[in-house]
Predict the 3D structure of the following.
Amino acid sequence: MDSALRQALEDRRQQQLYRQRQVMHSAQQPQRRLGNEAVLSFCSNDYLGLAADSRVAAAMIEGARHYGVGSGASHLTAGHTDAHHQLELELAVFTGRQRALLFSSGYMANLGVMTALAGRRDAVFHDRLNHASLLDGALLSGARFRRYPHLDTASLERMLQTCQSQRRLVVTDGVFSMDGDQADLVALSALCQQHQAWLVVDDAHGFGVLGAKGGGSAAVSGLAADQLPVLIGTLGKAFGTAGAFVAGSDVLIETLIQFSRSYIYTTGLPPAVAEATRVSLALVQQEDWRRQHLQQLIQHFRQSCTAAGMSLLPSETPIQPLLIGCAGKAVRISEALLLQGVQVTAIRPPTVPAGSARLRVTLTATHTLEQVDRLVSNLKQVMESDDAAH
């Protein structure tokens, strides 16, 4: 077995696609410890800087004192606590939906939604750049699986016009995780209503960051609950904790409880995490300065990169991709930055399409303008050096 697997690993190394974990020795903050070295990190999805917030940590500690460390069972046996239940109620109010349902991770939420709502007689239409968990969920569902070009609603409309399937699901990220751009939810909702399709939105990277009080892509779009019936969010990004949720009608949530295998057969999220999330949810809504500062950093970074002659993909979110193209070059630049004490991840296929390797810069509300200036300066220097050497 090892011999057969070793060849596949070697092939990945030769293609400059081999991935390695970096062991961090500090909390999620801009200044971190990588081994014995201090690094300035621009890799985290902790967009609002809540993962290391002392108030969130204190709530988790108190939750562990009260409930213990683990939930001990699935939600449908003995693992559903008052902490989980109260968080679900608060997430429902936050999203303006009748109910919300907690999952152990965003991946499990997406698998659970897709497999519970679609089957062999149905059709699922995916934006080509949707997250892998949405794609995997559609494949597992057994439904007819079609992908439309990224953000191309005209192509999607042509597909819907010829679809004869029993159920039709249109599935999209709210904010796309590797490009940082946003789906046109108003246009997608209109198409869904016209063709009797259900709109499913994974807003993992929008919640907390976009909209009034951090309501995400749904809040920005202004769509009512019946116009966007299935709304998915994760808690490990802007909320700073862990887990995920689905928000929607009472009928939707009951359907997921009864038919979603990744909910039914999974041990519940630790209740202490739920307690911590209740605090972070309140902070997301109350501390608007985090979003304001984040937007300032985004504009400053984009303007500075333009002035330095570096071209970014269009994005108004904390995800700021610098397209490189060649996987090997992206790795070289990332490694050279790390030698200067700046951590930026090189994103390569299969995470992104072939030929579109990039540096994925992510900004957080705990970065400073001075730290962003350092990043731009080091980026410019490293990229010019790499071009001269190759």
Notes: The mean pLDDT is 96. The chain has 14 helices and 13 strands.
